[in-house]
Amino acid sequence: MAEKPAAEKTEQPTPRRIAKARQKGQVPQSQELPSVVILIVLLITVALLAPELMRWFTAQMRQGMSCQTSIFTNSKNFIDFINAKIINSTLIICPILTALFIGSVLANIVVSGLNFAPEAISLKFSMINPAEGLKKLHIEAA
To answer: What does the DSSP 8-state code read for residue 8?
Structure first.
């Protein structure tokens, strides 16, 4: 039996069909709610961390404008300096990224519930097969 488009379906889906769709990872999703939640979480997190961020940015600017040439004397000093900057930058960004991750996961759970579907994340080689892609291009062009 061929699947009809959603507009032509007259009957409500059965609980079994809904359960099978959830197993495949086909759950209702909203693009707007997670986006709004992520934006709000970002604003709140940055507002709460603003004093610490300002101190960090000020310290970075002072150190950058101090004209310390000892950093460039040999490659070990320079690599140590760059590594320290990368670690400091990562540590200052981690709380923001963690809050954004938690906010996005919670927003998606609110919309579609807690659903883990390994089938939805399985690798489908047909999707990355160049021959299949060329066949689709040839069919669509005709």
So the answer is: G
- Tell me how far apart the alpha carbons of residues 49 and 57 are, in angstroms, rounded to a whole number: 12
Q: Taking Cα atoms as reference points, which of 30, 23, 28, 31 lies closest to residue 122?
A: 23
The structure tokens 């759970």 sit at 109
pLDDT digits (tens, 9 = 90+) for 10-49: 778 787 887 777 777 777 777 788 899 999 999 999 999 9
HSE-up of residue 27 (Cα within 13 Å, Cβ side):
17
Cβ–Cβ < 8 Å for 25, 120: yes
State pTM to two decimals.
0.64
pLDDT-based confidence at 120, cuts 50/70/90? low
C-alpha dist (Å) from residue 121 to 16, 21, 72, 108, 116: 22, 14, 47, 16, 10
Domain residue extents for the chain: 30-113
For residue 99 the two structure tokens come to 């809050």
